[in-house]
């Protein structure tokens, strides 16, 4: 390996949705318990990315999850997904961004910038990849 080769080491973990998911209540409760254990003992977690549907902005379940991440002091990055599908277009997207920006200001562990993502149009992918690499 020459001096210019960089090796990044780390893991990206994708968890199922904590809010909108079809599962029996017992399974949902088991998942919540598993996540609490993972967050409380996962001392090497360098960043949690929370994907928020750009059409709705933060929902109640998102706020509960952000409270949990704040309790465990986990660095958190908000990502608005599906920006191409926002009903009301750019005006509604701007409104949802502004509201969400205000709501996340109360969290010291949440980065203030919100990344915008559209997998359909590959918008924001490179920026998000670069953001992820800053934590490996």
Q: How would you describe this protein?
A:
With 136 residues, the protein is α/β, with parallel strands linked by helices. It has a domain at 46-133: 3-Layer(aba) Sandwich (Rossmann fold). Helices cover 40% and strands 14% of the residues. The chain contains 4 helices and 3 strands. The protein has a 3-stranded parallel beta sheet with strand order 1-2-3, covered by helices on one side. The longest helix is centred in the N-terminal third of the chain and has 17 residues, at 25-41. The radius of gyration is 16 Å and the shape is globular. The two termini are 19 Å apart. The model has no long low-confidence stretch (mean pLDDT 88).
Quick overview:
With 136 residues, the protein is α/β, with parallel strands linked by helices. The chain has a domain at 46-133: P-loop containing nucleotide triphosphate hydrolases (Rossmann fold), CATH 3.40.50.300.
Mean pLDDT across every amino acid position? 88
Structural class: alpha/beta
Q: Report the CATH topology name of the domain at 46-133.
A: Rossmann fold
Tell me how many strands there are. 3
The 3D shape can be described as globular
What is the CATH C-level name of the domain at 46-133? Alpha Beta
Q: Which strand order spans the largest sheet, edge to edge or round the barrel?
A: 1-2-3
Strand content: 5-15%
Unreliable runs? none
Rg, please?
16 Å
CATH superfamily of the domain at 46-133: P-loop containing nucleotide triphosphate hydrolases
Query: Helical region count?
Result: 4
CATH architecture of the domain at 46-133: 3-Layer(aba) Sandwich
Along the chain, the helix and strand elements come as HEHEHEH
The biggest beta sheet is recorded as:
3 strands, parallel
| First-to-last CA distance | 19 Å
Helix content: 25-40%
